[in-house]
Design a protein that fits this description.
The protein has 84 residues and is mainly alpha-helical. Helix content is 93%, strand content 0%. The chain has one domain. The radius of gyration is 24 Å and the shape is rod-shaped.
C-alpha cells in the first residue's frame, strides 16, 4: 500500500515536469512560470526519493540489529569453544 502510494507520487511529479516542459515549449512568455513548475516537480521527486532512502536505511539498520541478536549466542558459543 505504501509503495503504491510512493510510486503514484513519483509518477505525478514526473508528469508535472513533463507538462511544464510542454507548456514552456508552447509559449515562451511563460518560461519563468514553467521553470518554477519544473523545479517544483523535481523537488517533489527529490523529497520522495529522500524519504525512500531514509526508510531503506532504517530497515537496513533493523535487519542488521536483528541479525546480530540472532547470531550473538552462536558467537558466544564459538568463543567458549575457542578458549577451551
Amino acid at each position: 500500500m505504501l509503495s503504491a502510494s510512493i510510486l503514484e507520487w513519483i509518477t505525478a511529479g514526473l508528469i508535472w515536469v513533463e507538462v511544464a516542459v510542454i507548456l514552456g515549449l508552447a509559449n515562451h512568455q511563460t518560461a519563468r512560470f514553467t521553470r518554477a513548475q519544473m523545479l517544483l516537480g523535481v523537488v517533489i521527486i527529490a523529497l520522495i526519493c529522500s524519504q525512500l532512502l531514509i526508510i531503506g536505511v532504517t530497515f537496513m539498520k533493523m535487519f542488521v540489529l536483528i541479525g546480530q541478536l540472532i547470531l550473538l549466542p552462536t558467537f558466544w558459543q564459538a568463543l567458549k569453544e575457542f578458549e577451551k
